[in-house]
Amino acid sequence: MASNELAQPEVPNFIALLRSFPGQARLALGTRGVLWATFAGIIGVICCAVAFADIALSLHRSDVDPERRKAREVLALDGASRLLMRGILANSAATPGAGAARVADEPWRNFTESLSALCRDFAVPPQTRLAGACAAQQDFIDRVGPEIQAFDTHRRPMDATVLRELLQIRDDITELSLSTTRATDHMVGRLVDDYGEALLVLTLSTTGFVCAGLVLILLVGRTSMDYHAQWRRAADAAQQAGASRDMLSEVVEALPAGIVVYDSTEHLILCNSVARTLTPALRQPDAIGQTYSALAHESARRLEAAGMGPQPVQEWIERFRTRTTERTRQSDDGRWFDWSEKGTAGGLTVGLRVDVTDLKQHEFALEKARAEQESVRARYQSLVDSMVDVAYTLDVETGQFTFVNAAVADMFSMPPERFVGKHFLELIAPDSIERVRQQTTRKYDPSDQGTFARFSMIAAGGAVRNVEVRARRWVDEQGRIVSTGVIRDVDERVQLERRLDSEMNRLRSIVESNGALIVLVDHALNVEMVNSGFTALTGITATDAVGRPLQEILPCPLDPARTKRSRFAVRKRDASGRERLISITATPATDAGGAVSNIMLLGVDDTERREAEQALYNAERFATVGEMASTMAHEISQPLQVINIACASALDELALASENGGQPDPAFLQGKLDRIAQQVEQASRIIGDLRAFVRGTSSDTPEPFDANEAVRRAIDLTDHGLGEAGMTLQERLDAELPTVLGDAGHLAQVLVNLINNARDAGGGVISIATGTVQENDRTFVRIAVEDSGPGIASDILPRLFTSFVTTKPSGKGTGLGLRICRRILEEMGGRITAANRAEGGARFEILLPSQ
Ligand code: ADP
């Protein structure tokens, strides 16, 4: 197709040629040269125009043609008149009939014709005969013509008047001829002047043209030199371009992207190997030189053959031609490429195919992530909407809500879309508005931990709701300060709290009005509350007590891990320094997980009651002592008898030795003295035990002791009584028993009480055993007293350890024994329980915390 076009001769196009002139001129002269040439040309043209105008003006001014015609006609008339007059004169002098020329014919005719022409064309000087002849031309001819005819024919002399007139006319004509000659001379002179001027102007304009020509020649010369230099540079550049092209080919080949270059007629002129791997059609050996369209069709055919489905060839071609779009396409090996075409200034189309497979895979991963994000967002949205609290976002600058969840419908009886856009202050109740405004007008601080506030808001219909708002400020992607928060409807809670407050006040008044001592401690045994009863009893005010460890203000054997109610008694000096005995009931409160959260200690001043009880108990104890007196006497008489016998044996030995004059046996005496000392110790131990029992008191300071020791002491005190009652006592004592804190005499007193009760109940065998048990990670010493009697009456079992519970006849029992036993043990931090054994009989169990 291109060769056909080349074969056709170009039709010269004149207009195109003209149009090309400015470009060619600019090429040859340069822009400045064109300006110079144009300027010189304009100057030359102006000079020529001026010269020609001058000449034309001169010609116009000279009125040459009429003047010349007038001169011609005047000369013609002058000649005709001269001939006429010469003929008249010649004929006048000639003899008649001598064959003289006729005047009346040609000379007269010429004269009249010339006269008519002159008179017709020009004005002759007035006041002359000639003017008169012109004015009355016909009259003149009619008058003179016959005279001349007659002169010719008859040779009659001319009438003098006519001749004179003719002579005058002849003079006038001569005069006119002279004046015409002068005028012509004058005109010629002036023309000479004008032509001189014109010549000068022409000379100038010619000089201008010559100068312009010279300038043009200079410019063309310079431009051609420039072109020559440029041509040299172009030659060098072409050489370099060759090298560059080779380099470019190498670079293009080395590029990781596919490059294709098409010329302005869409024929492929270059492609690299990456492009060949991407576009199947480019793999053809003759691909270079083919059009994009042909290659696109070939590629589509090959891709379809490879099973990649119908290809949008037409779309490719359109995109190729628009050269603006960039699209991503997949090659037949599954990789992704960014396909783009770009036009160059030289009319080439450069196609770039960049491998974006990694990017595409990222894109796919991103899309997947985005979809997941969207589903997460939707889940969060439904989660947020399922919240009972109102979640919101607010533009701090405008004060308007930008987002709220579905909970507003319930809390404010308003659909979310009506809520969004409202100013938050519109929804604050008047009593809270100032407080909210103060909080919200603070400056933004990135380290701000947010706010928590409780105030009142107005729901639709004007209902006021108590709410709690937690909010935090942050800066969003657009740089706006936004506040995000949660509004919780605490109206019911507030009402409840108010009710609780009033209940608490009521309770407090009850607690305060109660004479009892009340202390509330937390799970770590730190005091949370004390009442006025506590202050009255201990002299410690609530301010001093709250927050301090309980042990500092009220030392007591309280186990913080124990979840059951416990009782104990503590001794405490009151404000006046008097020792008070306070019986305390500790009631633990547990949380949902079953752990102790608080313990309420309710104490009563038991001093007076205990003293009364003690008095009664002492009375009973003394009765017991009385009872035991015979036992004691027996107990002491036995060692005394042994001592007595030992003394008698020792004395006999001494007497025998004296009689025999020998020495007493020292080993025998030593044995007797040892036995006496042993028996004295036995007797004094019994007396000591009795004394301790009778005394009933001990030192205030608890000391560690061995519980087995107290058990043995109790057995010593009760042994004889049991024997008399025909009962036996079995003991199983744990030799490895840890010590306990308290008073051994008190514990012995408790055990004597238990053994005597068992004895009183009847039954053959009493057993007493010691050991250890673990409870709440603590070790307790356990002392169990069991008997084989009838057991404890079921009606008194639940209240066995309260005062005055007895089944014994009046005068025998007071019902205080077990009550006092419990108090003694509680003072030692222990406890006592009673139960009937399955096999019959009662079991009393004592637990004392080990040291
Ligand atoms: P008292 O001995 O003055 O009655 P206590 O407080 O010591 O007072 O005893 C209260 C009651 O408990 C007794 O009256 C008796 O009924 C019952 N009791 C105590 N120990 C036993 C026991 N081992 N077997 C049966 N009943 C007992």
Describe this protein's structure.
The chain is an alpha+beta fold and 851 residues long. The chain is 55% helix and 18% strand. The protein has a 5-stranded antiparallel beta sheet with strand order 2-1-5-4-3. Strand 19 (765-775) and strand 20 form a beta hairpin. Bound molecules: adenosine-5'-diphosphate. Residues 753, 757-758, 761, 787, 789, 791-793, 800, 805-808, 813-815, 817-818, 842 line the site of adenosine-5'-diphosphate (ADP).
Features:
851 residues, alpha+beta, five-stranded antiparallel sheet, 55% helix, rod-shaped, binds adenosine-5'-diphosphate
General shape: rod-shaped
Main sheet specs: 5 strands, antiparallel
Largest beta sheet: what is the strand line-up? 2-1-5-4-3
Q: Total helix count?
A: 23
Mean pLDDT: 83
- Helix fraction, binned, reads 55-70%
From the N-terminal CA to the C-terminal CA, the straight-line distance is 119 Å
> How many E strands?
22
Bound molecules: adenosine-5'-diphosphate
Uncertain spans: 1-9
Protein structure class: alpha+beta
Percentage of residues in strands: 15-25%
Using the CA coordinates, give the radius of gyration. 78 Å
Concise summary:
By secondary structure, this protein is of the alpha+beta class. It is built from 23 helices and 22 strands.
